[in-house]
């Protein structure tokens, strides 16, 4: 990858991380404070989630520069997995947060219920609007730069979007129970906090599954591999594709390829063909960083 491209990627990632960090600090302070004094478990739980987002943003800022470093003698395959490790840490953190929130929500059923303040609902609505804007902008940059670290931030925002809606509905149900003297609706806030925990758990599960797959170097999806095969098959000198596999290393992909060419081809002809295939793949897919090609001799069947 060109150095100026990596610099631009790092700049965009840092910008997203800083915006996320500042917004999450403000939302954390607001939701935890209003959740406590406004007597809303759901909004307080949402605030705990935002506090986890603050931690995630700090980690991303610390690791972005590392992941964008080019390959060196000690790390010949680059440093891209640093982003995957961040994604895994954030996933584990969200998993722990979900367990804590569901515990608090369930325990609330065994204590006298209190009606939350309407201010708690408006804080949740404000959080929803802010997180929706942050999610869209973060996901757009994550897709453009193929960054797992920024994607982790975007997933955090995604979890907060639905969590904030759930918190607002929970508070509204509790208020309705107080206004219309419907006792069971008073527990709407408690139920909403448990639902928030479930949403956080789902996001954590998705992040951890993807991170483990990359760290264990699982092959990329079949559809993408077939696209690579289509590009390679355009070269008539390739008599057979013996094996193709590819693995993600954070924001870039490495392809391993075995092809058969006519046995009488010279080393230079084989080298030129391999170079042309590599250039073609990297030219079409900008997230491919390296293509390793092994040549086998092809003998026509009699």
Report on this structure:
The chain has 302 residues and is mainly α. The chain has two domains: 3-215, Cation efflux protein transmembrane domain (Alpha-lytic protease prodomain-like); 222-298, Cation efflux protein, cytoplasmic domain (Alpha-Beta Plaits, 2-Layer Sandwich), CATH 3.30.70.1350. It is 69% helix and 10% strand. It has eight helices and three strands, in the order αααααααββαβ. The protein has helices spanning 3-37, 41-67, 81-107, 118-145, 148-179, 188-215, 222-233, 267-284; strands at 240-248, 253-262, 288-298. The chain has a three-stranded mixed β-sheet with strand order 1-2-3, with helices on one face. Helix 3 (81-107) packs parallel to helix 5, helix 3 packs antiparallel against helix 6 (188-215) and helix 4 (118-145) runs antiparallel to helix 5 (148-179). The protein starts with a helix and ends with a strand. The mean pLDDT is 84.
Total discrete domains = 2
- CATH fold-level label of the largest domain: Alpha-lytic protease prodomain-like
- Shape-level CATH architecture of the largest domain: Up-down Bundle
Strand order of the largest sheet: 1-2-3
Helical/strand content category:
mainly alpha
What does the main sheet amount to?
3 strands, mixed
Number of strands: 3
Termini separation: 45 Å
Order of helices and strands: HHHHHHHEEHE
As residue ranges, the low-confidence spans are none
What is the rounded Rg? 25 Å
Number of helices: 8
* Oligomeric state of the chains present here: single chain
Task: State the CATH superfamily name of the largest domain.
Answer: Cation efflux protein transmembrane domain
Query: What average pLDDT do the residues reach?
Result: 84
Helical amount: 55-70%
């Amino acid at each position: 990858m060109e150095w100026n491209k990596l610099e631009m990627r790092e700049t965009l990632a840092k910008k997203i991380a800083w915006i996320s960090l500042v917004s999450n600090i403000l939302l954390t302070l607001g939701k935890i404070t209003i959740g406590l004094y406004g007597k809303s478990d759901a909004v307080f739980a949402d605030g705990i989630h935002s506090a986890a987002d603050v931690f995630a943003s700090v980690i991303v800022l610390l690791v972005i520069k590392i992941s964008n470093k080019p390959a060196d003698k000690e790390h010949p395959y680059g440093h891209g997995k640093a982003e995957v490790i961040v994604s895994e840490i954030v996933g584990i953190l969200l998993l722990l947060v979900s367990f804590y929130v569901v515990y608090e929500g369930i325990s609330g059923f065994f204590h006298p219920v209190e009606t939350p303040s309407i201010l708690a609902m408006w804080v949740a609505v404000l959080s929803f609007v802010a997180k929706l804007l942050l999610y869209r902008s973060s996901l757009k940059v994550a897709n453009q730069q193929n960054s797992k670290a920024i994607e982790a931030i975007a997933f955090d925002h995604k979890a907060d979007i639905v969590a904030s809606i759930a918190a607002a509905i929970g508070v509204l149900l509790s208020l309705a129970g107080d206004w219309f003297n419907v006792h069971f609706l008073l527990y709407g806030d408690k139920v909403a906090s448990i639902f928030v925990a479930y949403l956080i758990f789902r996001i954590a599960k998705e992040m951890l599954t993807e991170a483990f797959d990359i760290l264990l170097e699982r092959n990329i999806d079949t559809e993408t591999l077939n696209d690579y095969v289509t590009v390679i098959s355009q070269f008539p000198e390739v008599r057979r594709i013996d094996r193709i596999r590819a693995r993600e290393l954070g924001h870039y992909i490495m392809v391993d390829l075995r092809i058969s060419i006519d046995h009488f081809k010279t080393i230079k002809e084989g080298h030129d063909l391999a170079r042309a295939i590599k250039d073609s793949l990297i030219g079409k897919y900008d997230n491919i960083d390296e293509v390793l090609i092994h040549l086998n001799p092809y003998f026509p069947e009699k």
